Amino acid sequence: MTRILTQCLKELAQFQRDRLTVALAFILPLGMLLIYGFAIRLEIKNITLSVQDFDNTSFSRSYIERLYATEQFTPVRDEPHAIDKGIVKATVIIPPKFYQDFQTKIPSQVQVLVDGTDVNNARVIQNSIRATTRSFLQTVEDNIPVQKIKTNLRIWFNPGRKESLYIVPGIYGVILWVFPSMLTAIGLVREKEEGTIIQVYASNLTAIEWLLGKGLAFLLIAIAEAIVVITFATIVFQVPIVDNILILILGTLTFLAASVSFGLFFGVRSKNQTGAVQGTTILGFLTAFLLSGFIYPISNIPYPISLISNIVPARYYMILSRDVFVRGTGWLSIWYIPIILLMFCCFFLFVSSRLLKNMQYSD
Fold first, then answer.
1. Which of 183, 160, 356, 163 lies closest to 269, judged by CA?
2. How far apart are the first and last CA of the chain?
3. Closest C-alpha among 355, 340, 183, 335 to residue 258
4. Which of 114, 119, 252, 295 lies 20 to 30 Å from 244 when distance is taken between CA atoms?
5. What is the DSSP string of 178-244?
């Protein structure tokens, strides 16, 4: 244990002297947090919409006002082929005798042209216009047949539909997976590039002791990084903890341990810092960003790529993080996550120690 702590203190001293590494550990994660926290928006707003009103009655104008009152659409003056030119995303065409047909109970078709270049946007526009039209008709005419079952909608956990409550707890999983693993891999590979790893081979340190010493040092750095990132995001984005803080502490510790072990694995496998950075950022970042449910549900990922998400540790931490910061359901629904993260940690540590033994014997 003494040799592990000595190796840990040595690594912390080297980290403190390297200002570039310190900046990589604390400044870049905060920059990434700000960019993603403010830039990523899932709720589509300011959709350009033009209207061709061939009825030109107070009734049709009330319908148009209702469309723009949703605050989803931005009015754009209609011109020929506006949707073809990309000026607007949708055009609503109100036919002549729109109000007259409504009074005589004759079905009147309002034509909606939607730019389908972006399929997701097109679906949102279509559903929004349909819902607004139904709401408008029910408001102006109580006798119009409606469903016998009415839905009383209530949004739980995030009634104000703040996107930060979804994005920020998710980005914790990306940041705290990429940067601790990257720093760990760089710190380990640096020993190879500088030749100091030969001293380790010549000493009586075992592979697991050396890895644990390195890992403990970078785990402490990762904990400091997590405290800075989460505290900063809580203040800037107003995303407080709504559940037991012990759940967050235990889940974050096991997740950081898995991240550091992942960095040890790439540090052992890589021959230079460039390879270590590329391995941890490309493999670690892409899987954490695309296959963890950070932005889009995992159910939307096509088979068999969706199977890979089962071995992405960030996926499990995002479930825990969003529960702690948004749902607050407690241990009952997320008790298994720290166990899974600990298993990832042990797996990467075991593989790293076996690879390092092979390196020692070959050298």
1. 356
2. 26
3. 340
4. 295
5. HHHHHHHHHHHHHHHHHTTHHHHHHSS--HHHHHHHHHHHHHHHHHHHHHHHHHHHHHHH-----S-
Give bridge partners of residue 48 from the DSSP assignment: 74
- What stretch(es) of the chain map to CATH 3.40.1710.10? 47-140
**Is residue 347 packed enough to be buried (19+ CB in 10 Å), middle (13-18) or exposed (0-12)?**
middle
Burial label, 63 (beta-carbon count in 10 A; 0-12, 13-18, 19+): buried
255 near 342, Cβ under 8 Å? no
Of 341, 344, 29, nearest in space to 172 by CA: 29
Contacts of residue 359, defined as CB under 8 A and 6 or more positions apart, other chains included, come to 268
Structure tokens at 105: 């109970």
Task: Enumerate the β-bridge partners of residue 114.
Answer: 90
Closest to 257 in 3D by CA, of 228, 229, 226, 236 = 226
10-residue mean pLDDT series, the chain (363 residues)? 78 79 84 85 79 89 88 83 82 87 78 80 84 81 48 64 84 93 88 69 73 90 94 91 89 95 89 83 88 82 87 93 87 90 94 76 46
Cα–Cα nearest to 261, from 359, 356, 351: 351
Of residues 94, 27, 86, the one with CA closest to residue 56: 94
Q: Is the link from the previous residue into 80 a cis peptide, with omega within 30 of 0?
A: no
Topology at the third CATH level for domain 47-140:
abc type-2 transporter like fold (3.40.1710)
Q: Name residues whose C-beta falls within 8 Å of residue 275's C-beta, 6 or more positions apart in sequence.
A: 189
C-beta separation of 14 from 214 below 8 A: no
Helix (H, G, I), strand (E, B) or coil at 73: strand
